[in-house]
Amino acid sequence: MNIKKIEITVYEAAGIRELTGEDAALLEKAAAATDRSYAPYSHFHVGAAVLLENGEIICGSNQENAAYPSGLCAERVALFYASAQYPEVAIRAVAVHSSVNGQANPDPVYPCGACRQVLLECESRFGQPIKVIMGGTKKIQIVNSVSGLLPLSFILK
Length: 157
Ligand code: THU
Hints:
The protein is of the alpha+beta class. 25% of the residues lie in helices and 24% in strands.
């Protein structure tokens, strides 16, 4: 049997000042969006900011519901809204940030499996990589393509 190793490259920054201006601005929008999250059950507030190819930035935040599975993650709120408003426009980058009790988390928040699947489809749909910026106040991690976050992924062919 053959062994196949799959490697991903993750860029790591110790703070927002180490990012490019464009990435920093997007992450700041994601952090600001945590304030608009509705998370009375988990108290875990997530903000996402999606940068479109046309320069537009769409923000989203997690929206919970008493019937738990009816809620939606910040990333998918932003991605689906972006697609509903601009179905023909590719996505360049997505930033995510989180907070608890009004305090931004020091560590990055990582998109859940379902959000990775949706991000991947956005990437394959337009045939161009989406940068994912996963932020915390003390550590920020960046991958240049969603495919790194979801190897061996399901795509209908
Ligand atoms: N959540 C997000 O919005 N994005 C993620 O990447 C991970 C989890 C939300 C879902 C739920 O409202 C809360 O965080 C706790 O799981």
